[in-house]
Every structure is written in C-alpha cells, then in structure tokens.
Amino acid sequence: MASLSRKSKLNSWNYADVIIFIVLTLFGLIILYPFYNTLLISLVTEGEYIRRPFMLWPEEPTLRAYWYVFKSPLIVSGFRTSLIVTVVGTIYSMFFTVSIAYALMKNFPGRGIFKAMLLFTMYFAGGLIPTYLLMKDLKLLDTLWVLILPTGATVNYIILLQRFFEEVPLELEESAKLDGCSEVGVLFKIILPLSLPSLATFGLYYAVGRWNAWYDGMLYIKDVEKQPIQTVLRTIIQNAAAVQGEAVGTDTDMDKVYAEGVKMASVFVTILPIMCVYPFLQRYFVSGLTAGAVKS
Amino acid sequence: MAKNTMLDEHYSKMSLMQRIAYHKYIYLILLPALVYYIVFKYVPIYGLTLAFKTYKASKGIWGSPWIGLENFHNLTINVGFLTAFKNTIIISFLKIIFGFPMPIILTLLINEMRIKKYKNVLQTIYTFPHFLSWVVVAGMCFNLFAGDGIINKFFAVVGIPQQNLLTDHKGFLGLLVGSAMWKETGWSTILYLAAITSIDTSIYEAARIDGANRFQQMIYVTIPGIAAMMATNLVLSCGHVMDAGFDQVFNMYNAAVFDVADIIDSYVYRITFQQTPDFGFSTAVGMFKGVVNLILILTVNKVVKSFGQKGIV
C-alpha cells in the first residue's frame, strides 16, 4: 500500500482520500481538544468562562492559577518527590532489568528455576492486603523508599532486553574475554553500548510509569508533604469535587482564584514534562512496543 | 535460549560445583534480583494464607488463627462483592465490544493516508494520551462532562436536555468506555500498522494487476494480513476481563454510580481502607480475583499459541 501512495500525486485525490483526511483530522481534534480545554480553563478568570464558555482563545488571559499552583506547598513538594522517585526509581528498575536480562543469557545452573520464578510473578501476585502488611512490617510506610523499592523490573522488558543482548555478536564478547575482560566488563564495555536504543526505550517507559504513579502514594503515604505529584493532584481534583465546585484547600487567596482554573493548571503542569519530551522521543516510545511484536 | 560460548567445550565436562563456580559472577549479579523477588513478590504471595485466616493485628499473618474456607463462603453471599464481580465483567466486555474494532478502523484509515508528514504528526497526537495517568485524564474528563461543564453547555445550546454523565448510571458507563477509547485507541494502532508493513508488497502488486482498486486491496490483502493479530488481541483481551481498569474507575467514579461502576479491585480497596477492615475477607476477595485471572490468562495463552501466534511473553 505504501508504494502505491508514494507513486500517486496529490492531484489524483478522490473522494475517499478527502473523507479519510477529514475523519483522521477530526479524530486528532478529539484527542487534542481536552488538552486545549484544560489550558484554556487554566488561563481564564471565572467571570470570563461564565461569559464566554465557547471561547476559542482567552480575551483576558491570566496566570493567577499558575501563580497559585507554584505557590502551593503541596504541589511543590509533590513535584520534588516525583522528581526524586522518577530518577532514582528508573535507575533502580533499569538495574534489575539489565542484570536479570544479562544473567538469563548465560546457561548457569538454576537458570530454569529462576526464570520460572520470574514468569510466575507476571501471572500471580499477593494483592493489596498482603503487600500492604508487608510494607508496614518493613517499616516502609510514610517513607520515600516505599515509592521506589517495591516496584522492580517489568518482566516483559527483561525478556525483550535479553533478546536484544543476544543479538550482540558472540565474537565481540569472546574477543573481549580473551583480552582479559570479566563478565561484568563485557556487559559494560560491549553489550550495553550496543544496546543503547533499547535501553533508552525501557528507561523512558520506567520514567513515565514512575512519574504517573499515584496509587502507592495514596496507599502507603499519609503525610501529604511526602506524597508524589499525581497523588497530590488526585486530592486536588477529587476534593474540590468537580460535581460540587468547592474551593481548593482553605487558603484565603482561593477566594480570588477560580477553583476550576487551579485544578486545570495543576493538571497541565503535571503533564507538561511528558508533553515536552514526547514528540521528540516518540520513536523510542513506539519502538518498545513494535520490537516485542516483530521479533518472535 | 541461553548462549553457548566457545569455552563451552570445557563447560560440558564440568561437574555441577565447577559450573556454579564458573558462573560465580552471574550469581553475584543476580543476588539483588533474587532478594527483590523473594521479599516483594513471594512474601506477599505467602501472605495470601490470610484468606484462610481471621486477622489478628497482634499476631501478624503467621500467627493469626486458621478458619478454613469461611472467608470464601462469606464471599459467595456478599452483595457488595457479587455486584462488583458482575460490574467487572460488564465493564470489561463493554470495553472489548467498543474498544476492539476502533483501533482496526483507525489503522486502516491511517494506512490509506497519503501525506506522510501529516500522517506522522497525527500518529504522534493519537498515541500521546497513552502516556498519561488516569488521575490526569479523570481531571480533564470532570471538567468537560460535569453538570456545568462545556459538554452540557453545548447540549443546552443545541437543545439536548442537560445531564450529568458523572452521576448517571448509563452515562457513566459510556464515559468509562469512551475515555478508555480516547486514551488507548491510538496506541493500539501501532501493532496493527507494524503488521501491515510486514505484508509482502508483491501481494499488493498482484492484486493491482488483477484489477483490484484501493478498497478491494484493503479488503482482500490488508485485512487478511492483520487478521491473525486481530484474533490474538481479541483473545488476549478476553484473558483480562477481571481487570476492568482500576486506575480509571477509581479516579472517575463516585458514590452515585457505585451500583454500576464498583469493580472488584475498587471494592477491595473500599472495604479495606474506607470501612472497618476485615483483612481476611479482603484478602479472600483479592485471591479469588487473582486465581480466576491466572486461569483465564493461561487459557487464552494456550488458545493464542494454538493458532500459531506468540502469547503474552
């Protein structure tokens, strides 16, 4: 099909092409509109929103909501927590992914048992209560560690990475070993540098997962100042109950601020980091999915 | 499969102890992972014994007294659980019925898009929502669909009676399915598009020589080319019916729609952390879900493999 489309000129468009163009554009707008709406609401005053609900752009844009958001101690602490968890957590997860993938390449005694143990965790888990009680027994509740330590590596990524590692030519490893390189040396000097694109892909997945994590923050951390940004955001959205339209928190400044605007500004700053990197790194994001499907 | 090195001629003659010694660094590398899996994965699995006990905080999981199958018996007569079980299956199937065909239709349309640059821009837009959390998506949805949201304001203008989809039973289910499709449809097209690129172009050539137009090529070449993947996806999604989407439901629902929207995972959370907890019973509910899930996934994996596709890795 691709070869056909390349050959045909724009002037040979027929009705089908026009319809396809319109339908795909419409779908794109449906995806984009909620983001645009979020941005709009965050930039207007309540008065303007009531006056012109169907506005396409704000007439008197204001950054009050953003000013409020960046002054809010909870959002600032949430960002700090999420940043730490994202950086440390991604390294933590990558460490397990790389070490297990590398070990599984080798035919060591016990490999089968270890792999079965790994695969079983994909299908079955202890679930909410046993995990919660474990965190309590380990004294991890209300610490940053509880947001990092329990989330290890994704088994799918380990298996995909193992396949990438196995594509590294055996001769390279052998010659490095003959030059006196240890197992660990081979991993760092030969295999990892040759697998950078896939490492980038899985690293991105882990980072996005960490940034988006809200459940562990809600479950294990009662001290709101230690909660990650998504958990804080959830509190802002749920407490200021969309349905009732109550004000966020008890800050007196809130009287002058449009509550819905603050909520949308909080949403927007939370997705901004992902929004900024996604268009440039889309290639890496996508390749992780197709790699799993194309190789067999 | 594990690689064999050229040193393996010696290796095959080694005794078990020698082999272990030969791989000593590998064991060293694996040690942290082993500790991780035992502590964070297998200790909680042991904790499932709580489903057969009545929890006494002072005695912990190990010391709490056994009560046999009582928790599971209570489960079969608990109205809240039965409702959640029914809702889980209904929501999952609604998502499959509406969510399964959409990516296929979108894939076929994208594949026919002739301006390559525009196609790439669209794909970037379509796939982006996949990387957002449900906290964020729920926040955006509330704003759009609340009683005084833009959608209702629009309804008022065109004369459709206002309704709050967030509190209406049918409306809320529609919102669950619709927002899941908004978030995931674009991402799901990627595998189909990858499958299309692997269709042999000579088949298209042959079809064209036989006089097939673009529509006929789509029907007779493209669709059969991705049929296996369609079947695989359908079967695999049936394996996940017990996961109706906790992140989504928990962030979007409210007390007004518990009757239709409370799923097993959200039910377990609520009875454990928002009511007087009975840890034994909660664990039994979680374990019931886990076991049904395990059976379903192993079954669909077998089905998928039987028609020559790779299952869940």
Written description of the protein model:
The complex is a heterodimer of chains A (296) and B (313). By secondary structure, chain A is mostly helical. Chain A folds into 2 domains: 1-62, no CATH class; 65-296, Orthogonal Bundle (MetI-like fold), CATH 1.10.3720. Chain A has helices spanning 2-7, 15-43, 46-51, 64-71, 73-105, 111-123, 128-137, 145-148, 155-167, 170-178, 183-194, 196-212, 215-220, 229-239, 259-294. The longest helix of chain A is centred in the last third of the chain and has 36 residues, at 259-294. Chain A is globular and about 75 Å long. Chain B has 2 domains: 1-33, no CATH class; 82-306, MetI-like (MetI-like fold, Orthogonal Bundle), CATH 1.10.3720. Helices cover 72% and strands 0% of the residues of chain B. Chain B contains 17 helices and no strands. In chain B, helix 6 packs antiparallel against helix 16 (264-273), helix 9 runs parallel beside helix 14 and helix 13 runs antiparallel to helix 17 (279-306). The mean pLDDT of chain B is 91. Chains A and B meet through helix 1, helix 2, helix 5, helix 6 and helix 7 of A and helix 2, helix 3, helix 7, helix 8 and helix 9 of B.
Could you name the key traits of this structure?
heterodimer; A: 296 residues; mainly alpha; MetI-like fold; 2 domains; globular; B: 313 residues; 72% helix; 0% strand
Concise account of the structure shown:
With 296 residues, chain A is mainly alpha-helical. Chain A contains 15 helices and no strands. Chain A starts with a helix and ends with a helix.
Total domain units of chain B: 2
User: Order of helices and strands of chain A, N to C?
Assistant: HHHHHHHHHHHHHHH
CATH superfamily of the largest domain in chain B: MetI-like
Separate helix tally of chain B: 17
Hey, which two chains have the biggest interface? A-B, 110 and 116 residues
The structural domain count of chain A equals 2
CATH architectural designation of the largest domain in chain A: Orthogonal Bundle
Helix content of chain B: over 70%
Low-confidence stretches of chain B: none
Number of strands of chain A: 0
Give the number of DSSP strands of chain B. Answer: 0
Rg of chain A, Å, rounded: 25 Å
